[in-house]
Design goal:
heterodimer, A: mainly alpha, 0% strand, B: mainly alpha, Four Helix Bundle (Hemerythrin (Met), subunit A), 78% helix
Chain lengths: 133, 199
Amino acid sequence: MKPFSIENRPELATYLSGFFLALLLTLLAFGIVCAQTGIALQPISFVLGRFPQGAERLREMPHWLVISGIFVLAVLQITVHLWYFLHLDFSPRQRMKVHAILFSLCIMFIIICGTLWIMQDLGNQMSPISSGR
Amino acid sequence: MIPEPSLPFPVPTEICSPAKTFGFWIYLMSDSVIFALLFATYASMSRNYAGGPTGKEVFDLSTVFYETLVLLSSTLTCGFSILSLSKAKTPRLLFWMAITFLLGLGFVLMEYSEFHSLIWQGAGLDRSGFLSAFFTLVGTHGLHVSIGLVWLLVMMVQVVQKGLTAPVQSRLYRFSLFWHFLDLVWVGIFSMVYLLGVL
């Protein structure tokens, strides 16, 4: 008798690969920001110092690419967490969970994009506050 | 004939029934909607400095970096505790739960000292819309981690007192889902709030 059924028994390799993938994505995101701003973070600055050409290339990245890069890295890392730590996959036994997550992603999309849209629009329609106050 | 040695507790075929896991999953999803609301609030307030300090001036990226590493390690040790649970090894389970607790406590203390120094510098949550939204978002996450620490402590007591009974196993499994979920929210916070804030 085992406390876990065969399908959902966790494996050491799963957690370790999830951890190292997440660590890599975290270091990449912080590395880009360190190279861009010149903030010294000890382990990252050391690596950037060893590869001056790569650091130079990161520093010269255009602003829009940096912001979308950080966004993409965050989405990738969240996917890694869902897959390796929360054991989400596309097997039939997980289908209800996937439906729940897709539904809440829908809600989150409406909330975030709707808020930004409406507040941005309101901000644009406000008359500027006089600086003398 | 010698009877087969049996475990002192009934072993379920699954650690946590699919219905319970799914119910907890629904809770996590509603929690993520709360965080989405707070992220949306922060995103629309993130430039409302009201003449106060900007993120670039007050955020200390090295604290955030170590907080991230500590929370990510605690997610790994939480996974190790579930591995020990699946092998029904109680001492090892308690060891990894204690390590997870200490790492989580370290995270909360680092966040507390960060908030303390921000308020000390005059960048408290009453300074500007940006800081109100920042403290609400990051503070809500910190509150979740603190409640998770209390839950973890209660589970350690239950493991010692009750042993690995079916309800205890199921609670531990759901705790691990909660803990991994909190690290997932932190990924959003350090990317969207801190990394974009210091750029």
